[in-house]
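Service request form, structural biology core

Requester: graduate student, group of Dr. S.
Request type: structure prediction, single chain
Budget code: on file
Notes: please return the result as structure tokens.

Sequence provided:
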Amino acid sequence: MEAIFSKTKEKMEKCLNSLERDYKAVRAGRANPAILDRVTVDYYGTPTPINQMAAISVPEPRMLMIQPWDASTLKEIEKAINTAEIGINPSNDGKAIRLVFPPLTEERRKELVKDIAKRAEEAKVAIRNVRRDAMDDLKKLKKNNEITEDDQKTGEKKLQDITDSYVKEAEEMEKKKEQEILSI
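Core staff response, request fulfilled:
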């Protein structure tokens, strides 16, 4: 039965990690290098993440600066950023690329908050699906007479407690990200 609990916690942790990765990619009006995590550049025929071929810095709160280690890749990096559709036009000065983040409008903030709420809800649904699968595992153990009915009830209560704590954590992540977006 403990194996079920540890497997359940592991899967729920993955749900929260996925939510956190999604939230990092949400543009909150301030410069965040994580927005470039999914952008790859065709570097000698190999798709390469920008952070493996350039130094990414935040010289100002609303600006990212990308300085490639190989100056000849500047055009490719700029092209990759344009095709990634992250909503920011890069400016190239021949040595570095600057991404200037425009301030968010009230309307855009509300859209982002809705998107954040939707992603949090998806994470909570995923967490509940993990709980359902674990409950099914407990029922199978009971059916095969490997545990008693009391053990099953105790296990179901423990699974519910685990689920509640992970759902609460997802809600806290949502509130924190919402605060970040609305406070700019």
